[in-house]
Every structure is written in C-alpha cells, then in structure tokens.
Amino acid sequence: MKKLLKQFLERESSSSIVLFAMTVIAIGWMNSPLRYFYEQFVSQFLFVINDGLMAIFFLLVGLELKRGFYEGELSSPAQIILPIVAAIGGMLVPALIYILLNYADPVNLKGWATPVATDIAFALGTLSLFGKRVPSALKLFLLALAIFDDIGAIIIIILFYSTGLSLLYLLLSILFILLLFILNWLAIRSWVPYIALGVLLWTSTLFSGIHPTIAGVVLAFFIPHHVDSAKSTMHSMEKFLQPWVAYFIMPIFALANTGFSLRNLSWDIFSSRIVLGIIFGLFVGKQIGVLGSIWLMIRLRLAKLPEQITWLQLYGVAIICGIGFTMSLFLGTLSFQSNTFYLPQIRFGVLSGSILSGIMGVIILRFAFYSAKHEE
Length: 376
Prior knowledge:
Layout: H1 2-10, H2 14-30, H3 35-71, H4 77-102, H5 120-128, H6 136-160, H7 167-185, H8 191-208, H9 214-220, H10 233-257, H11 267-270, H12 273-299, H13 311-320, H14 325-335, H15 343-375
Helix pairs in contact: 2-5, 2-10, 3-9, 3-10, 4-6, 4-12, 5-6, 7-8, 8-9, 10-14, 12-13, 12-15, 13-15, 14-15
C-alpha cells in the first residue's frame, strides 16, 4: 500500500488528480445540505488560504524560476526566446478577447486578467498522461512557457492589484529585503533567518497595499543557490515545499475557491459576458496567442522549431495552456474581491474554459503522438 501511494505521489499527473477531486468535493459540498458549513469554512479561512498559503505557493514558484535561470530550461538565451514570446502572446490575446466582450461594462472589465494564466500543474499533468511518447523538448517547452506565464501573472498582481500604498510599510518592506540581501551575501544556509524575515516581509507587504503573495516570490530570490544540490538551501527548500504545495496548499485553495451553487446555472450565467470572456479567452485566446506567436517568430526567422516537435504537438500544447484553473481562479478572485456577487461567474467560466481546453488538448495530442509514431 505504501509503495502504491509513493508511486502515485511521484507521478506528475497525481497533483492534477487531487486538484480535480477537491474541485468536485467543493461543488458537491456547496450543493449539499451541508452548504452552510462550506460557506462558514470559506468565510473563516479564505484570507488565510488566498493571502497566506498562496504566498508559500509563490515562494515555490520563485524557487523554481531561480533554479530554471541558474541551471535548467531557462539558462540559455536560445532556449527561452520562443517560450517567452509564446507566453506573452498567450496572455495578450485572452486578455484582448475578454476586453472586447466586456468593454461596455466597467465592472466586468475588472476581470480582464482572469483568462491570461496557465495552471502549470494541470498543464504538465495533462501532458504527462502520454508518458514516454512526449518528446523531452516538448515538455521543456511547455515548462518554460508556463514559468514565463507565472512571471507575467506576478507582474500583473504587482501592477494591478496593489491599492492604497503606504509609504511607511513600503519602507519597512525595503528594509526587510535589504536584510535578506545581506543574509544571501553572507551565504547563510540556515532556513530560520530567511523564514523569519519572510514572515515580516509578508506582514509589511500586506499593510503596504501590495498583494502579500508577492513576498513569497521576493523571498525566493534571496534563498542561497549552490551548484552542489546537497549544499544548496534553495534545492532543499524547494524539495521540502513541493509535496506540501502540490498536495495541501493547492488542493485546499481549490476547495475554498471552486465551490458554486448549481442553482446559479441559468441562462443568465451562460450568457454572462464575464463567463463568455473567460471561456473564449482560455479556450480560444490561449491557443491563438501561443501558436500564433510561435508561427510568427519562426516565419520571421527569429526562432526555430524545436527538434523532435511537430506543429500538431505544439498546437496541442497551445490548447492545454488554456487550463487556467487555480491561477485563473486566483486572479479572478483578486479582480472581484470587493464584489463577491461575480465570483460564481468567475468560477464557472474558469472551470468551463479549463475543462474544454483539457479535453480538446488531450484529443489533439493523442492524434499528434499517434501520427508521429506512424511517420517514424
């Protein structure tokens, strides 16, 4: 039994399965006689989950970004140009589609960032369903694209979800960042001072008006890196956080943010411009933005098609980039945190767009790998 559990946890798709299960539980709970307890759970813990635990998620994202730049798929300029442009296109087109559908309503426009994100865990989990048939270059391309997508999401949070800035707390945040820099410069390997300053930075960031999850990303960039993974604080912290984020933080986030009443499923919600903007942004905008950017870069001879990858495989990857799920839910919740009336529409739109992208992506990738196998 322990061996089976270990094998399940080591599979890349397992975290996606857990997230999907928690989504089903959230929707079922919200539509059961125990709905009151779900609403109480959300009202009591939503701040802790969305502002506290998600800071730990962004700490892990920051550590993965740092590792990627130092030693991984982002260490070579030639490797990053195509995924950078694809990520930018994959964010701009969905945002543009949402804006075009909602330009007449200033309140609806607040949700423009919702369809720009890609859920890296779900996207990689979906691709991993095909096992050894997936070329390593395709997996690395998707990983790099998703990482730059995360960078874009972080920039959006900083620029558009910071309100009522406090100079005092901003100065305190800068002080804590300077102290983190000193710790890194002195090559202090112990976790304790970094975590302590990270908590202080999170607190000062919260009161500064900047969204506190950014503190996690900032902290990550000052965690010491060493070429020897056995001596690297960054590697040990990343390894420690990965299972906690994959099997506790993200599932609890999904549980708290995906529940919506099926009684809300009326013609009004299906015809809602917010819902349509998110669905078309994720399902249509992502594939146009990602694949269109790749085609343009190759057409202009600014990049080359990665070896062992076909256009049909890239198209499949472009579609699964539309699985926004947790990141889209996070951005959507930030967009309408002062008006919870719109949250059911956000949740329905994100779930619908993500499911459509996942199903169609699997169909296209299945055909792409089948075709590639028979051409060999």
